[in-house]
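Look at one record.

>
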Amino acid sequence: MGGLYEYIKMAVQNIRANKGRSFLTMLGIIIGVAAVVLIMGLGNGMRQSVTDSVTGDKDTVQVYYEAKGEELDPAYADLSQPTKPVKEVWLEQVARQTPGIDSYFVTNSLTSSISLQKKTVKNVNITGASQGYFKAKKLEMLTGRSLQDNDYKNFSRVIVIDQMVAKKLFETNGDALNQVVTIGNNDYRVIGVYKNKDTAIGAYGEIGTALVANTQLAAENNTDAIGQIFFHVTDVKNSSSVAKDAAKRLTQLAQDDNGEYKAADMSSALDQVNTIFGTITTVVGAIAGISLLVGGIGVMNIMLVSVTERTREIGLRKALGATRRKILTQFLIESMVLTILGGLIGLGFAALVVGPIGNAMDLKATVSLGVAMGSIAFSAAVGIIFGLLPANKASKLDPIEALRYD
C-alpha cells in the first residue's frame, strides 16, 4: 500500500511540474467524458419524458373497443366505434364491481382554433371531459377553477385553457378569466387556466389544450359523448391486471357479438421508445467516445515524451535497484492518474451543466451513479491502455545507456 501511495505521489508531482502540458493532455479526456456523461444524462431524461407521455398517468388505465378482425393501436382507440354505444350505467357498474378501481371518466375530443378578437391559436386539442376527469387528473390550476357539477347540469359554455393557449391570447393568466373566446361558431367563457405538463410539438410550435364538458362538446359537434374510457386504479402495481378485469366486465355488459373491450397495453410502444433512444444514445455516445480515443492517443504521446525526458532518472532508479516491474508500474500509474483527473474534471463539468440544460429542455436530466462510476472506470482504462506502451518502453531501458543519455 505504501508503494502505491508513493507512485501516486510521484505522479502528482510530475503532473504539477508540467501543469500546462498536463492540462492540454487531459483536455481530450475532459471533453470526451463530459460529452458522454452529458449525452447519457439528457438521453435518459428524454427517454423518461417520452415514456411518461406514452404511459400517461400511471394510476389511470384505458379500455377501448376493438371490432373482430381488427388489431387496433390504443392511441387511436376512439376510431373504432362499438355496435352498441357505451352507457354510463355500464361504466358505473364496472367501477363499482371491479376490485382495485374506485372511479372512471370518459373523454371525447376535436382539434380546432381558439380565437379572441384578432388573436387566434391554431390546432388546439379540445378535450371534452366528464366530471370524473378533474378528480382523477388532479390538475394544477394556475388561476380560476375547473368544471363543476352545475356546469354539466346547465350545459354551460365554459372552458378551461392551458398555459400555452393563455400565453398566446392574454397578457397574464389572470387576464384570461371571464373572457369570451370562440371555438368554431360557439362562444365559451374562460373560467380557469391550468398547467399542462404534457405539451406536444406540432407544425405551429407547442400545441395547446383546452377542456370543456364532454356532453357540451358532443352536443355542439354531433359527436359521441364517450370517445375514450378511463378507469382510476387504487394501486398502480396492479394496474395491468385490473384494466383487463375492467375490460372483461365491460364486454360482458355490452353483449356485443361484433367485438370486445380491451385494456390498452403500452408495453410494445415503450419497447419501441427504449429501442429508439437506446440506439440514439449509443450512436451519439460512440461519436463522443472518439474524443476519448483522441485523448488517449494524446496521453500516450505525452508519456512517450516524458519517458524520453526522464531517461537519466529511469537509469538512476534502475542502478539503485528498481526492477522493471516497478518502473512499469510507476509510469502506468502516472498515466492513470492523468486520465482519472481528466475524467473527474469532465464528470464535474457535466454534472454542473446537465441540470440547467435539462431544465431548459423541460427534462429531468441527472447524472446517475452508474454513469459517474462508469466514466471514471473508463478513464482509468484509457490510462492503462494508452500508457502501456510508454511504460513498457521505460521499463526496458538499459540502465547504463540511460545514465549516459544527455
